[in-house]
Amino acid sequence: MTMREQIEAAAARYPDQRSAIMPALLIAQREHGHLPGQVLEEVADILGVERIWVYELATFYTLFHIEPVGMFHLQLCDNVSCMLRRSEELLRHLEEVLGINKGGTTPDGLFTLSTVECLGACEMAPVMQVGDDYHGNLDVARTDALLDSLRAMARQVESVEPAFARPPGE
User: Fold this and answer.
1) Exposed, middle or buried by CB within 10 Å (0-12, 13-18, 19+), for 116?
2) Rounded distance between C-alpha atoms, residue 32 and residue 146, angstroms
3) What are phi and psi of 54, to 5 degrees?
4) Measured between alpha carbons, how far is 29 from 168 in angstroms, rounded to an integer?
């Protein structure tokens, strides 16, 4: 199914097209890797809603990416519970090991490092989201093991390119 067909099918489940914006954005991001302006406009046009409504949601929630991100988007929680359990130390370690600052992407396009206000998983603080998966009770050793695991997964892919360098739909 094309992106348009997927969005139309998702939107059919909602009585108000505005309610379908988030599922439509997820479909569009899966298709394009991120949500540049022209994709946001296309989503609005498909749903027949105001473009500002689509833009507002896409820029408010951390699960949507307006800018390209690496193959693995590391989102480290920096809220109080995680901070008390040393998330700041993990952030410094990640910046050093990856050779990037918060908000940056590694030159090979594998990792983008971000902090987020709260992942709602205080019971396993400090916690980091990678894609759809949560990784908790992190320390330096567990974080390094996670990075090694992600690198191994990337090597299994035929060619390691950043998400933004892949053609749409791959």
Assistant:
1) middle
2) 26
3) -70, -45
4) 10
Please state, in angstroms and rounded to a whole number, the distance separating the CA atoms of residues 143 and 145.
Answer: 5
CA 109 – CA 70 distance, rounded (Å):
5
pTM of structure: 0.77
Helix, strand, coil abundance in the chain, percent, nearest 5: 50, 10, 40
Instruction: Give the torsion through C-alpha atoms of 37, 41, 47, 50, to 10 deg.
Output: 100
Q: What is the pLDDT of residues 17-56, one digit of tens each?
A: 999 999 999 999 999 989 999 999 999 999 999 999 999 9
Task: Find the DSSP H helices in 2-102.
Answer: 3-11, 21-32, 37-47, 51-60, 80-84, 87-98
